[in-house]
Write a structure and sequence with these properties.
This protein is α/β, with parallel strands linked by helices. The chain has two domains: about 5-95, Udp-n-acetylmuramoylalanyl-d-glutamate--2,6- Diaminopimelate Ligase, Chain: A, domain 1, CATH 3.40.1390.10; about 100-315, 3 Solenoid (UDP N-Acetylglucosamine Acyltransferase, domain 1). Helix content is about 15%, strand content about 30%. The strands form six sheets. A twelve-stranded mixed beta sheet has the order 8-11-14-17-20-25-28-31-34-37-39-40. Strands 9-12-15-18-21-26-29-32-35-38 form a ten-stranded parallel beta sheet, with no helix packed on it. Strands 10-13-16-19-24-27-30-33-36 form a nine-stranded parallel beta sheet, with no helix packed on it. Strand 39 (about 305) and strand 40 (about 310) form a beta hairpin. The chain is flat and about 75 Å long.
Length: about 325
């Protein structure tokens, strides 16, 4: 990659402040910037590095007002964080080459249909009647069960296991070791105290542009489907139980656990280690702080919850202040 500041500004809808011909060939964190690299400044706590950075180009927000001289050429954009994400994607797409490839050994059923330029790694198993879209890349040691449908331009990293009958959209990324479609934790307690397993005959449906982290498990439904809607982002080591529905563009950080038959709305954010009980509904645009536990419906969207059990964040802060005060009085 070699690109000038003025070319960056044109591509990102920004303006140049400094040398428009400044060239960059690599990316670097703002604290590690060096000549020939591009960095970005979006978080105020890193402002000190703006004035010491040796990067050739620095992406900054349009409204940033420096308090000291800035050495790098600045490219002002509406949102520096989004701009660098956009730029990284462009560079990654240019590096990504789609080509047909079949490693040896691998097993592809005769009735499976693979699109154009599908890349298949070693020890991959693709079952009967599977359909895989154009330009999808399947890394080593992946298992794709019978009748599964996978869209185009997907990336399936090593060790992923996809059970039979799953449906996966376009441009989906499944990171190493994730499991799509194993049985949910469904058991019926019998009068004699034993457990009767509930058979799971449904599937998992994953929409377009979804990314699922390493070692995350998404259980199939006993009947009908567990659904992950378009644009969702699920981090590593999460557990999504049977019949859960996760709305469009919802994101959850690592180690979240969602119990069965819960419906999470669109554009929600769940922090790390959030637990959500089963059979509840969570409204659109809900935010839940890390290590919180939701145990009831959230009917009004656009609010933030925190605590165990989770309550409105502002209520939690008031309660915590009183709790802390009581503790200090006791210690005195």
């Amino acid at each position: 990659m070699e690109i000038s500041a003025k070319e960056l500004a044109a591509a990102l809808g920004g303006t140049v402040e400094g040398d428009p011909e400044a060239k960059v060939t690599s990316f670097a964190k703002i604290e590690h910037g060096k000549p020939g690299s591009i960095s970005f400044f979006a978080n105020p706590k890193y402002e000190q590095y703006v004035y010491t950075s040796k990067a050739s180009v620095l992406l900054v927000n349009s409204d940033f007002v420096p308090s000291k001289p800035v050495t790098p050429t600045m490219v002002r954009v509406p949102d520096a964080y989004s701009a660098v994400a956009q730029l990284l994607k462009v560079v990654a797409d240019k590096k990504r080459k789609y080509r047909r490839h079949r490693s040896f050994p691998c097993h592809i059923a005769c009735s499976a249909k693979l699109g154009k330029k599908v890349w298949v790694g070693r020890f991959v198993s693709i079952g009967k009647k599977c359909r895989i879209g154009d330009c999808t890349k399947i890394y080593d040691n992946v298992t794709i069960g019978e009748g599964t449908v996978i869209g185009k331009q997907c990336i399936i990293y090593p060790g992923v296991h996809i059970f039979p009958g799953m449906v996966i959209g376009d441009r989906v990324i499944l990171h190493a070791g994730c499991i799509i479609g194993d049985d949910g934790f469904g058991n019926s307690l019998q009068p004699d105290g034993t457990w009767q397993k509930i058979e799971h005959l449904g599937n998992v449906i994953i929409g377009n542009d979804v990314e699922i982290g390493s070692n995350t498990t998404i259980d199939k439904a006993p009947m009908e489907s567990t659904i992950i809607a378009d644009g969702a982002r699920i981090d590593n080591l999460c557990q999504i139980a049977h019949n859960v529905v996760i709305g469009k563009n919802t994101a959850m950080a690592a180690q979240c656990g969602i119990a069965g038959s819960t419906k999470i709305g669109e554009s929600c954010i769940l922090g790390g280690q959030v637990g959500v009980t089963g059979h509840i509904n969570i409204a659109d645009h809900t935010t839940v702080g890390a290590k919180s536990a939701l145990i009831g419906n959230v009917r009004k969207g656009g609010q933030t919850y925190y605590g165990n059990p989770a309550i409105l964040h502002r209520t939690y802060l008031k309660a915590y202040a009183k709790f802390k005060q009581a503790g200090e009085e006791t210690s005195n």
